[in-house]
Specification:
The complex is a heterodimer of chains A (925) and B (177). Chain A has 925 residues and is an alpha/beta fold. Chain A contains 29 helices and 36 strands. Helix content of chain A is 29%, strand content 17%. Chain A has a seven-stranded mixed β-sheet with strand order 14-13-27-26-25-15-16, sandwiched between helices. In chain A, strands 31-35-32-34-33-36 form a six-stranded mixed β-barrel. In chain A, strand 13 and strand 14 form a beta hairpin. In chain A, helix 8 packs parallel to helix 24, helix 12 crosses helix 16 and helix 12 packs parallel to helix 18. Chain B has 177 residues and is α+β, with helices and mostly antiparallel strands. Chain B has eight helices and four strands. In chain B, strands 2-1-3-4 form a four-stranded mixed β-sheet, covered by helices on one side. The longest helix of chain B is centred in the first third of the chain and has 12 residues. Chain B is elongated, with a radius of gyration of 20 Å. Classes of the chains: A alpha/beta (925), B alpha+beta (177).
Chain lengths: 925, 177
C-alpha cells in the first residue's frame, strides 16, 4: 500500500491511496463537520457540509467522496469554505420547522449542533416548509418528514446494511422524501422496525415512538443485547435509574489508529471498548425496542415463599435459610444426587461458572444443565466430535467473503437478524450465491439462487446425498482430506446408497437440483454453511450436525476464508453457559468430568473432591423428578413449563419434588410452582460477560440499580453457598473472572485488558478456526445414517406442525411479552396454515382452531398463508398464552439428549369459539 | 398503446407484464428502458407491475418506485387515449388562452392533470408550443389546433357537458374565424 502525502491545513499528512480527504482528516485529528457521512454506509456527498477548498485549483470539493492525490493542498476552514458551509446550513434551516424547543432530538440533533457551532442564529432566507408527518399506527417508529434533510442515511442503512429496502427516495425537487412503496405507513411495508434508520438519522425526522423520556441523557452505558445469540453491542441511555433509549453502538471505524505504514496497530479498537462488534451499527426490533421489560411492574422485588398455595414476601435471610435447610435435609436423607440444578443460557458467563461450582463444590453433584440443551447440544457433540471444536468456526464478518452460502434448518430473519443482514449483504453486494434449504418460504427465499424444499426431517438424507455427489464427481478438496482428516474411507462406504435418485424419493427434491447444489457448494473457493435449530431440534439432530461437518470437511471449508460452519445460537449466552461448564458431563472448558486426571486438576484448584459420575441432563432431570429420584431442584433463569415439551408432564414432575427453588426476574409459569422464589436482576443491572454464537466475548455493564431487593444472580449464588456452609472463595466478580481466565484455555485474557480479545482478531480467528491444526490432530468424518422421523404422520394426526422463532418476540416470551411495544404490535399467538389446507378444513381467517397432539391440545388463532407446503402448519414459540411446546411428547436425541421440539404430528379442528379476533400487526393474507 | 391489455374493468394483464419483464431481465441498467416499454404498451405503468419488475431485476420495490416517481414522463395512473395540452404561454394568454382552458375543462368535466373516467382525454397545460402566430393554441394528441375559439372547442369535443355560459357568446362575438 503506497503512502500518499497531502497538505492538510498547512500540515503534511499521509494516508494510503484510496482514502478520502475526510477519512485522512479524521485520522489526523482535524474535524470536518458532516451530516450525511457514516463509516458504515457508502458516501454519497449529499449534504455538502464537508466541503473543503483545494487551494491549487480553487475548487470546493466534498471531502467525503474525494480521494486524496499526491501533492494536494487542502484547506478545511478557509473563508470561502466557511461561507459556503454557513449558507448550506441556512438553506437546510430554511426548510426546517421552528420546533427546536419541543423537538425530542434536542441536544442530539446534528443540524442544531452545526448551526450552533457556526454561530448561525438568524436565517434570512425565505422559509419553504416541507410537507409533513405521515400518520402511522406502529408502536415503534415515528416519522416527521418535515424535519428531513434528505441526507439519505435512512435509505442507505435500509438498503445497504439491513438490505430490507423498505424505503427509497420518492419524487423530486421540493416534494422529494424517503418513502415506502405506494407511500404507505411503515407497518404496511417490508420494514422490520430494526431501528437502524432511527439511530442514524441526524435530525428529529425519525424518532422512537412512545419514548419514556424527551431529550438527551447524561449517562450512556455500553453493554450487550440480552436476546438472541448475536450479542449485539448496544448502548443504554439512562435517566433517573430508568433505561430510556437503546441504540446500536457506533463503531468509529474511520478513526482506527494506524501506524506509519498504514497497518492497523494493536491499539485499534480501543475507541469504545466494544467497537469491532458483530452488528456494525444495526440492531433488530427486539434489541432496539424490546428492552423495556426491565421496567415492567411485574418484576419481582422481594424473595417469596409459598405458604399454603400463595406466596408471601420474606427477607433474603429467611429465604436463603429455608433453602439451605431444605437442601441439606434432602442431601442427608437421600444423598446428594437427589438434587439438581437447571442453569441459564441467559445469565452471564461468570454466573454460570459460579453455578457449576456451586453444584460441584457445595452440593457435590454433577446434575447441572442449562437451557441451551434444548437447541444446541447437537452442535456441541456433532462438531466437537468431528472437528474437535464445539461451535461456530469463524467470525460473522467472514461470511461476507463467502462465494456460496448454504442456509439449512435456520430462519435468520426471525431468530438472528444480524446473521440475516450479513447473508443478504453477501448475496446482494458481494455476489455470493445462496442455497436455501427450507420447506417453508422465508424472507431469504427471494435471495436464494437455489431453494430446496425437503420433506420434514429428511435433512440427513439430503446432506449425505450432497456429500456423495461431491465424492463421485471428484469435487472434493483432496489435499485437505488427505492431510487433515481421518476416516474418509468409512464415509465413502456409508454414503454408497445415498445417490441423488434415492435422496429424491426420500426428500422429494428433484435429483438434478441436488446435483446442482452439490456442485455449486464444492466448486466455490469459500463456501459457508449456516444452520440452526431446524437441524438440532430433531430426535437425531446430532447426525444432522455431523453430516454438515462432513460436507465442510470434504470441501476443505474449515479454516478457510469464506468457508466455515456457523452454528446459530438461539439465546444470548447459550455458547457461554456451555463453555463455563454448566453441563453434566463437562467441567469448565469442555474438560471431561469422567477423566480422573482432569478432575484432579480441578480438585487441586478448588480444594474439594469432585463427584466422578456424569450427571443428568435437563430432560433426564425431569424424568427422574417424576419418578421421585430427584427431590430438590434449583432453577436459575429458565422457564421449563413453557420451554420444555409436554408441559403437563413437567408440571407433574415439579409437583412431585420436595423442594423447588426458582430464581428469575418475573413470576413465570414455572415460578408459580416453586417453594421459594428469588428475585434476580436483569442484564442491565449487573456486570459480566456474554459469549455470542461466534465465540466472541462481550461485556455486560451495569446501567441501573436492580428494583426492590432483587440481586444479580452471581450474588445470590454466593450468598446461598455461604448459607449452606460451604462458601465459595470469591468476594468480587473480578476474582471470578480471574479464575475463569486461569482455568479455561479458551478464555485466556478475555477481560483483563479489554483490548486483547478484539484488537487482535487474527489471533482469535486462528484460535477459533485452528488454521494450522485441529484441536484433536485430525478432523474426523462421521458417517451417519438417515433415520426417518419416528413420529411419521399417522392417520389420527395427519398434519405436521413446525415450530420456530418469530421476530417480534423471543424465547418463552417471559421478557418480550412484557415489552410494551412488541406486545402491542403482535399480541396474540397464531398458527399458519396453507391456503389449500385451510380450504379443505373449511377454515377462514377469522376462525380459531384447536391443535391436538397425542399429549395435549391448544386453541389458537389462524393465519392463512401461501408460504407452506401442503400438510404442514407452522406456529411460532414465544406466546405465553399458547405455548406450542406443550404439544410435543418427550423424545430425546440419543447422543445429545435434546428433546425433539421442531416437528410433531397434530390434528386440526375448527374451534367453535365465539370471540374470534384477528392478529394485530401485518402480514395477514 | 395496446388497449387490449387493459380489460373493461381496468384490470391489467399481468401475463403480458411478465413477458415484457422477462425480455429485459438479463440486460444491465434495464430498469428505465423496461418501464418505458411497459408505458408504451399500457399507456402507463400499472402499480401492480412494480413488484414483478423489482423481483426480476433484483431491486427493491421502493427503488423502482423511486425511479418511476422521479421522471415526469412516467405515469403510474392510466392516461387518456388523447392528451389535450392547452397552451398558457405569453401570446396565448394575451389572446384569451385562459378562457379556452376554462371551456375545455367545462366540456371535459375534469381539472388540469386529470383524466376523464372513460379514459379518453387527459388535460394538461404547457408553457409554449411555439406557434404563437396562431394563438390561442391547443394540441390534441399530435394535432395542433390554432386560432381557438369557443365554437371550435365545442366542435372538437362535441360534448354538450357544459350549460349556457355568458362568456361563450362574448367569445363568439369578439373573435371571428
Amino acid at each position: 500500500m503506497q503512502a500518499v502525502t497531502i497538505t492538510l491545513d498547512g500540515r503534511e499528512v499521509s494516508g494510503h491511496s484510496g482514502m478520502t480527504i475526510l477519512e485522512l482528516a479524521r485520522e489526523s485529528g482535524i474535524d470536518i463537520p458532516t451530516l450525511c457521512y457514516d463509516p458504515h454506509l457508502t458516501s454519497i456527498g449529499a449534504c455538502r457540509i464537508c466541503l473543503v477548498e483545494n487551494e491549487q485549483t480553487g475548487a470546493l470539493v466534498a471531502s467525503c467522496v474525494t480521494p486524496i492525490a499526491p501533492g494536494m493542498i487542502i484547506n478545511t476552514h478557509s473563508p470561502r469554505v466557511i461561507e459556503h458551509r454557513k449558507n448550506i446550513v441556512k438553506l437546510l434551516l430554511a426548510s426546517h420547522p421552528d420546533s427546536c424547543l419541543v423537538c425530542d432530538k434536542g441536544n442530539r440533533c446534528q443540524l442544531r449542533q452545526l448551526a450552533s457551532d457556526m454561530g448561525i442564529g438568524l436565517v434570512e432566507f425565505q422559509r419553504i416548509p416541507q410537507m409533513a408527518a405521515i400518520e402511522e399506527v406502529n408502536p415503534f417508529i415515528e416519522r416527521d418528514l418535515s424535519k428531513c434533510i434528505l441526507c439519505a442515511k435512512c435509505i442507505r442503512a435500509c438498503q445497504e446494511l439491513v438490505v430490507e429496502g423498505a424505503i427509497d427516495y420518492y419524487q423530486r425537487g421540493f416534494a422529494n422524501k424517503p418513502a415506502t412503496l405506494n407511500n404507505l405507513p411503515l407497518e404496511d411495508s417490508e420494514c422490520t422496525f430494526c431501528g437502524t434508520c432511527v439511530a442514524l438519522c441526524p435530525t428529529g425526522a425519525l424518532t422512537e415512538k412512545e419514548r419514556p423520556y424527551r431529550g438527551t441523557t447524561k449517562t450512556t452505558v455500553q453493554t450487550t443485547c440480552p436476546f438472541c445469540g448475536c450479542g449485539c453491542c448496544i448502548s443504554l441511555e439512562v435517566k433517573d435509574n430508568h433505561i430510556v433509549r437503546v441504540s446500536p453502538v457506533e463503531e468509529d471505524a474511520v478513526n482506527p489508529v494506524r501506524n506509519s505504514s498504514g497497518a492497523l496497530s494493536p491499539a485499534a479498537g480501543q475507541q469504545g471498548s466494544i467497537s469491532n462488534g458483530v452488528n456494525h451499527g444495526t440492531l433488530c426490533v427486539r434489541g432496539s425496542y424490546g428492552c423495556d421489560f426491565i421496567h415492567s411492574p411485574d418484576r419481582l422485588t422481594k424473595p417469596l415463599v409459598k405458604v399454603k398455595d400463595s406466596f408471601t414476601e420474606v427477607s433474603w435471610e429467611q429465604a436463603l435459610e429455608l433453602i439451605a435447610t431444605e437442601f441439606k435435609r434432602i442431601k442427608d436423607e437421600h444423598g446428594p444426587n437427589s438434587l439438581a440444578i437447571l442453569g441459564s443460557s441467559k445469565c452471564t458467563n461468570e454466573e454460570n461458572y459460579l453455578l457449576q461450582r456451586f453444584a460441584r463444590c457445595v452440593l457435590g453433584i454433577n446434575n447441572i444443565d442449562n437451557g441451551s440443551r434444548l437447541y444446541s447440544s447437537a452442535t456441541r457433540l456433532g462438531l466437537g466430535f468431528s472437528i474437535g471444536f464445539s461451535g461456530t468456526t469463524n467470525y460473522l464478518s467472514n461470511l461476507e467473503q463467502s462465494e456460496v452460502i448454504i442456509v439449512i434448518g435456520a430462519d435468520p430473519p426471525a431468530s438472528t437478524p444480524i446473521v440475516e443482514y450479513a447473508i443478504k449483504r453477501a448475496v446482494k453486494y458481494k455476489s455470493a450465491k445462496l442455497i436455501l434449504i427450507d420447506p417453508r418460504q422465508t424472507k431469504l427465499s427471494s435471495f436464494a439462487h437455489l431453494w430446496l424444499r425437503p420433506k420434514i426431517g429428511t435433512d440427513v438424507a439430503l446432506l449425505n446425498s450432497l456429500a456423495k455427489v461431491i465424492i463421485d464427481e471428484g469435487l472434493l478438496d483432496e489435499e485437505f482430506v488427505v492431510r487433515r482428516t481421518d476416516n474418509f474411507k468409512a464415509l465413502t462406504k456409508a454414503l454408497e446408497r445415498y445417490s441423488p435418485e434415492y435422496a429424491e424419493t426420500v426428500t422429494g427434491i428433484p435429483n438434478h437440483e441436488i446435483r446442482a447444489a452439490a456442485r455449486l457448494y464444492a466448486m466455490a473457493s469459500g463456501a459457508a454453511i449456516v444452520y440452526g435449530s431446524g437441524i438440532t431440534q430433531y430426535a437425531n439432530g446430532t447426525n444432522g450436525v455431523k453430516a454438515i461437518s462432513n460436507l465442510a470437511l470434504l470441501t476443505g471449508n474449515i479454516g478457510r476464508r469464506g468457508g466455515g460452519i456457523y452454528a446459530l445460537q438461539r439465546e444470548n449466552n447459550g455458547q457461554g453457559a456451555c463453555d463455563m461448564g454448566a453441563l453434566p458431563k463437562f467441567l469448565p472448558g469442555y474438560q471431561d468430568v469422567a477423566d480422573a486426571q482432569t478432575r484432579r486438576k480441578f480438585e487441586e484448584h478448588w480444594k474439594v473432591s469432585l463427584p466422578a459420575n456424569p450427571g443428568l441432563t435437563a430432560l433426564e432431570i425431569i424424568e427422574q423428578a417424576k419418578e421421585g429420584k430427584i427431590k430438590g431442584l434449583y432453577i436459575v433463569g429458565e422457564n421449563p413449563i413453557l420451554s420444555f415439551p409436554h408441559s403437563s408432564l413437567v408440571a407433574e414432575a415439579f409437583a412431585s419434588l420436595d423442594f423447588l427453588v426458582v430464581q428469575d426476574m418475573f413470576l413465570t409459569e414455572t415460578a408459580r410452582l416453586a417453594n421459594v422464589i428469588l428475585p434476580a436482576a436483569s442484564f442491565a443491572e449487573k456486570e459480566g460477560t456474554f459469549t455470542n454464537f461466534e465465540g466472541r466475548v462481550n461485556r455486560v455493564r451495569k446501567a441501573i440499580e436492580p428494583p426492590g431487593e432483587s440481586l444479580p444472580d452471581w450474588e445470590i449464588i454466593l450468598r446461598l453457598a455461604e448459607k449452606i456452609g460451604s462458601p465459595l472463595p470469591f468476594s468480587s466478580l473480578r476474582q471470578v473472572m480471574d479464575e475463569i481466565e486461569e482455568l479455561i484455555p479458551l478464555y485466556e485474557g478475555y477481560t483483563g485488558s479489554e483490548r486483547l480479545y478484539q484488537a487482535e482478531p487474527d489471533i482469535r480467528e486462528t484460535r477459533r478456526t485452528y488454521m494450522e491444526q485441529f484441536l484433536r490432530g485430525f478432523a474426523r468424518f462421521s458417517p451417519v445414517e438417515y433415520i426417518p422421523r419416528a413420529e411419521g404422520a399417522k392417520e389420527d394426526y395427519p398434519f405436521t406442525l413446525l415450530t420456530g422463532t418469530i421476530l417480534y418476540h423471543f424465547g418463552t416470551g417471559a421478557r418480550s411479552s412484557r415489552a410494551s411495544r412488541s406486545k402491542k404490535f403482535l399480541p396474540q399467538a397464531f398458527v399458519e396454515i396453507g391456503e389449500s389446507d385451510a380450504k379443505k378444513l373449511g377454515i377462514s381467517r377469522s376462525d380459531k382452531v384447536k391443535l391436538i397432539s397425542p399429549v395435549a391440545e391448544l386453541i389458537t388463532a389462524v393465519r392463512i398463508t401461501d408460504t407452506l407446503p401442503e400438510g404442514i402448519v407452522f406456529m411460532p414459540i414465544s406466546f405465553t398464552e399458547s405455548p406450542v411446546n406443550r404439544l410435543f411428547s418427550i423424545v430425546l436425541d440419543p447422543e445429545a439428549k435434546t428433546p425433539s421440539l421442531k416437528a410433531c404430528n397434530v390434528r386440526i379442528e375448527k374451534s367453535l369459539s365465539l370471540d374470534a379476533c384477528l392478529p394485530v400487526g401485518r402480514g395477514e393474507d | 398503446m395496446n388497449k387490449a391489455n387493459i380489460t373493461e374493468y381496468g384490470e391489467v394483464s399481468l401475463a403480458r407484464i411478465n413477458e415484457i419483464v422477462a425480455e429485459y431481465s438479463q440486460q444491465k441498467w434495464a430498469l428505465i428502458p423496461l418501464v418505458q416499454k411497459i408505458q408504451n404498451e399500457f399507456g402507463y405503468i400499472p402499480p401492480q407491475s412494480i413488484p414483478i419488475i423489482a423481483k426480476n431485476l433484483r431491486l427493491f420495490t421502493s427503488q423502482v418506485q423511486g425511479v418511476i416517481s422521479f421522471y415526469a414522463q412516467l405515469y403510474t395512473e392510466p392516461r387518456g387515449r388523447r392528451v389535450v395540452r392547452v397552451c398558457r404561454g405569453t401570446a396565448c394568454h394575451v389572446r384569451g388562452g385562459k378562457t379556452i382552458l376554462k371551456l375545455v375543462k367545462c366540456h371535459l368535466g375534469i381539472e388540469e392533470g386529470q383524466t376523464t373516467p372513460d379514459l379518453e382525454y387527459t388535460l394538461e397545460t404547457v408553457a409554449c408550443i411555439g406557434v404563437c402566430a396562431l394563438a390561442p393554441n391547443m394540441v390534441i394528441s399530435d394535432k395542433v389546433c390554432g386560432h381557438m375559439n369557443p365554437k371550435k372547442v365545442e366542435q372538437l369535443f362535441k360534448t354538450p357537458t357544459c350549460h349556457s355560459d355568458p362568456e361563450r357568446s362574448e367569445g363568439e362575438e369578439s373573435r371571428g374565424e
